[in-house]
Amino acid sequence: MSNNAEKDQVVPEEDDDEPDDCASSVLAAMQDKMNDCYYAKRDWRACKDEMEAFRECWKRQGNDKRTETKDA
User: How far apart, in whole angstroms, are the C-alpha atoms of residue 69 and residue 10?
Assistant: First the structure.
């Protein structure tokens, strides 16, 4: 095999069966937890911990750049 053929080969990404700590399913679960908190307490201020956890996970996924959201 020549050097050019080796360079042109595509190396597949490693198959990672472990879910990302902020995978979409985790984000969805965090959003559900946030919504449940609000439903139970009827006050977003009482759900700051849930909101902050969701916000940090959202940012780690790069969704703030993708959706161009801005922190207030």
Answer: 35
